[in-house]
Amino acid sequence: MAKTTFHAADKRGHAYHGWLNAHHSFSFAGWYDPTKIHFGALRVLNDDIVDAGMGFGKHPHDNMEIITIVLEGSLEHKDSMGHTQQIVPNEVQVMSAGSGITHSEYNPDPNRKANLLQTWIFPDKKNVQPRYDQKMFPAEERVNRLQPLVSPITNGDAGLKIHQSAWIYRTTLETGKNVTHTLHSKQHGAYIFVIEGNATVGEQVLGKRDALGISDTASFEIKADSTSDVLIFEVPM
Predict the structure, then answer these.
(1) Is CATH 2.60.120.10 what the domain over 140-236 is classified as, yes or no?
(2) pLDDT for position 160
(3) β-sheet with 199-201: strand ranges across
(4) Which of 185, 182, 152, 154 is nearest to 166 (CA)?
């Protein structure tokens, strides 16, 4: 029988820094919940709202796969590898921090807030050469089907590449529609995060920003109770 863990949106960690309004699905910075350290290899899922013209100054990372998905507005990224690029909605950025990088991220729009999801996934190899990539994923290509955003560097699946046997999918489900996802391995689980809308997985109803971790199952179905925007993180447990 499948094992499930429900994470309600209003039970996430919350930090307000004036210019940054952040919600944490897993323990992060000053917020600690011993029951929410990680879900398998998924270590961080932060839902950040960054004020106009504000952002994160230069800071270091190492040995982590960092994936950024912009939902609203834009985010400008600068790093020690020489990249300066903006990320906008429907784009995804991946960064293998590997042996070590520094970067900064800020909202370049002087008039509009930016909303982004940033995910950290533990890598399966340490101290790799840092790398960066980003790509646009057209919204029409995920309507009532799974759109692969991220996949392992070791296989030929679609999506940006990371150093882990992990996949990220996004789907926009119309009311009453459903999708089924079959996990790649018995040792994997999935963390299902509803960006917008209402969806049901098994017996669990999920609203906006609710999440469900599911493991010990070969597959699962997501059904949209209203038009829904959903992320699936498949990771080793």
Answers:
(1) yes
(2) 97
(3) 178-182, 219-224, 199-201, 204-206
(4) 152
Please give the CATH superfamily to which domain 12-136 belongs: Jelly Rolls (2.60.120.10)
pTM metric for this prediction: 0.97
Pair of tokens at residue 220 = 């699962």
On the question of a common fold for 12-136 and 140-236, the answer reads: yes
Cα atoms in the 13 Å half-sphere on the side-chain side of 39: 27
CA dihedral 40, 42, 47, 53 (to 10 degrees): 160
Paired strand residues for 48:
22, 116
pLDDT tens, residue by residue, 58-100: 888 899 999 999 999 999 988 788 888 899 999 999 999 999 9
Domain coordinates in residue numbering, the chain: 12-136, 140-236
Q: Phi, psi at residue 141, to the nearest 5°?
A: -85, 5
* Residues contacting residue 32 through CB under 8 Å, at least 6 positions apart: none
Tokens representing 17 are 């820094």
| Residue numbers in the chain where pLDDT is lower than 50 | none
